[in-house]
Amino acid sequence: xxxxxxxxxxxxxxxxxxxxxxxxxxxxxxxxxxxxxxxxxxxxxxxxxxxxxxxxxxxxxxxxxxxxxxxxxxxxxxxxxxxxxxxxxxxxxxxxxxxxxxxxxxxxxxxxxxxxxxxxxxxxxxxxxxxxxxxxxxxxxxxxxxxxxxxxxxxxxxxxxxxxxxxxxxxxxxxxxxxxxxxxxxxxxxxxxxxxxxxxxxxxxxxxxxxxxxxxxxxxxxxxxxxxxxxxxxxxxxxxxxxxxxxxxxxxxxxxxxxxxxxxxxxxxxxxxxxxxxxxxxxxxxxxxxxxxxxxxxxxxxxxxxxxxxxxxxxxxxxxxxxxxxxxxxxxxxxxxxxxxxxxxxxxxxxxxxx
Length: 355
What we know:
Blueprint: H1 21-35, H2 37-51, H3 54-61, E1 69-70, H4 72-83, E2 100-105, H5 113-119, H6 121-124, E3 129-136, E4 144-150, H7 172-175, H8 186-200, H9 202-218, H10 225-240, E5 248-249, H11 251-267, H12 280-287, E6 294-300, H13 305-314, H14 322-327, E7 334-342, E8 346-354
Parallel strand pairs: 1-3, 5-7
Antiparallel strand pairs: 2-4, 3-4, 6-8, 7-8
Helix pairs in contact: 1-2, 1-5, 2-3, 2-5, 8-13, 9-10, 11-12
């Protein structure tokens, strides 16, 4: 799962293959924030407040970390995304990467370097995100992409929680709106129920997230800083969130999810953009012409429906938390969950939402 600079600097010997001052300005700001977060916040607080107020809290507690390393091969991946519309480029560099986060933007010409930085704020001060590449084509409207490469080094955070979860108030029958649907598998129905659980009983689900973080903290791989921060943020949001409407399945939106899933399976990778360059809302409203709009989540792996929903809610590494806010968007009335085989992840999920 999948996502996306200053006053004093050290001297970086970087060759930007593209002649873009915007690219170099963003990278300079990134390393100012990493190497001296306090000074960076002092100099840019008003702009950060405008573009991404949540980043201020991170900077207030952030400790200096090593400057990010410019990786020309990550930049080349970004160039392939923009100039060749390759949504799944291969990394051909020599750095050892254990994951990453990426994104691309529209309206590139209108944004300042600080605004771009604030849009990828969850990655910047996490030292695991060690390598960085960015490509900007000023001649294209959708002309910018970035990619962070994660180091294989790991720091582990501790999280303690041992409260017993009381689910006696949860009406699971009410949440199981797909129970009688004949076109969905049992696992797909479980995911619909899990999404409704989050929406209807957010206070109970906050405890499920806390239990998950505590379990991950004790696991062999441990709880990394990004997941820890995302988890604390999510728990606070769920505790404040009102109970939302539950979602019902609809065959037309399921067909949209299924068709996109089969398209991704055929091409060998998942992306929100279809082979025909369609967006999620295009596909959903085409199948469901009475809908106003819709959106989509994707998740890969062999875990249970609950584990996938938790992963999407945490959305660690994704600065917009777009997957999270899809699940808890009060506008939605309908939902579809489609699962297909994926050799890389064992399974791939498509979640569609609409109204």
